[in-house]
Design goal:
Helices cover 51% and strands 0% of the residues. The protein is mainly alpha-helical.
């Protein structure tokens, strides 16, 4: 009997990722990118994060893939935690459950 081939049915039955899940995955990737470049947001207070986002708004919007408002970006980063957080467990690499769509 020949080996069974994987089907696309498993992929077709899955719900598409939500915009929130995609934004959180991209925020984790952004946080990891910053960390790789020597910028550690762990322990950064609200005001420090707010200033950083305002100063580099174009970078954050580019990494997130949309023109998010500064307050939205700050809230997203505060919600996603650190790369060690369960929501950032992929350490900057896009989660298999959340495709990187531009």
């Amino acid at each position: 009997m020949p080996a069974s081939r994987p089907t696309t049915q498993a992929y077709e039955d899955r719900d598409p990722p939500s915009a929130v899940a995609i934004a959180e995955a991209r925020a984790c990737a952004c946080r990891s990118d910053l960390l790789a470049n020597g910028i550690d947001l762990a322990g950064a207070g609200h005001e420090s994060l707010r200033r950083l986002v305002r100063l580099h708004l174009d970078y954050f919007q580019l990494m997130l893939g949309y023109d998010a408002a500064p307050a939205e970006i700050v809230a997203l980063f505060e919600r996603t935690g650190t790369p060690a957080d369960k929501r950032c467990s992929h350490s900057g690499i896009a989660s298999p459950q959340v495709p990187d769509v531009a």
